[in-house]
Amino acid sequence: MDNNLIRVLNSFSEQFCRIIKTKLDSVSEIRIRSNKPVVIYMSCMPYLIAEDGDFLPADKQTILNDDCIKFSSREIKNAFARICEYSVYKYQSDINNGFVTVCGGHRIGICGTAVLSDGKVKSISDISSVNIRIAHEFIGCSAELLQRTGIDSGFLICGVPSSGKTTLLRDIGRTLSSEIPAKVSIVDERGEIAARFGGENCFDTGLCDIYSGYPKNKAIIDSIRTMSPDYVICDELTGADVESVLYTLNYGVKLIASLHCDSPETAKNNGAFRKLTGTHAFEKIVFLDSRTPCRISRILTMEELYAD
């Protein structure tokens, strides 16, 4: 049992923690909104929690159920303060980006009222929603993917949120750096891959060099200049990352990355996807099953993708 996650759940209530613990291995997200039923996601499906501890499939009828567990805005505010160890300043830079990451790699996303200074978010007040994304580590989960894609080229992993993109990237880094072994740099801009906390990685990333909290473009370029990697691994590319993607290509470094995209059909109409694959840095595109984390749906070359 992950004591760090238990501490987060206990910040809301002991009863809430006790109920969630019974399903913890299956839970990927817990969404808590002010005065609304708590929604948890198991196998990508939403459930509500009845006061008696039963888990109810979320639908129009159960969402209106007054007997489901809810938290007030004050309870959410107090819980978040406990999660931050009553030292919000310690987490301020992360809070400004809409989340905090706690030991264990678990991310607590927050939604509320932005306090702006010179057009930038200075802080977030009146937190009304909290999303606890539970980090899971599955050693060896990338074995099938690496066997099918090979290790001689870069590839792009596409999937919806909670489909296992980050979990796969983490295990790919561990495998390539420890079992090949290759020189691997992980660009962990949001602190989810290695989940570094207090200078230590919460997850096993093998012998990778970790760039934690760096802006993605800078970290990719700096890693190539200073660490001479065979591979660079990073999460959640966007169309704005084309320059750094080209940089890896020009220096012969293989890039393994992820992108939010749910299917080959939508990929072809996704502007970011077209820009990134137009660099020719990725020889294969991996699509994940939206219903089962880390499960491969299809692996296509660019030629196969556009031939469909």
Description of the structure:
This protein is an alpha/beta fold. The chain folds into two domains: 3-133, Beta-Lactamase; 143-307, 3-Layer(aba) Sandwich (Rossmann fold), CATH 3.40.50.300. It is built from twelve helices and 16 strands. The strands form three sheets. It has a seven-stranded antiparallel sheet with strand order 4-3-2-1-7-6-5. A seven-stranded mixed sheet has the order 12-9-13-14-8-15-16, with helices on both faces. The protein has a two-stranded antiparallel sheet with strand order 10-11. β13 (231-234), α9 (242-250) and β14 form a beta-alpha-beta unit. The longest helix has 15 residues, at 165-179. It is globular. It starts with a helix and ends with a helix.
Concise structural overview:
Helix content is 31%, strand content 28%. The protein has twelve helices and 16 strands. It has a seven-stranded antiparallel sheet with strand order 4-3-2-1-7-6-5. A seven-stranded mixed sheet has the order 12-9-13-14-8-15-16, sandwiched between helices.
Give the N-to-C terminal Cα separation: 45 Å
Second rung of CATH, namely the architecture of the largest domain: 3-Layer(aba) Sandwich
The CATH superfamily label of the largest domain reads P-loop containing nucleotide triphosphate hydrolases
Count of helical stretches = 12
H and E string: HHEEEEHHHEEEHEHEEEEHEHEHHEEH
Low-confidence stretches: none
- Strand order, main sheet: write it out: 4-3-2-1-7-6-5
Q: What helical percentage do the residues reach?
A: 25-40%
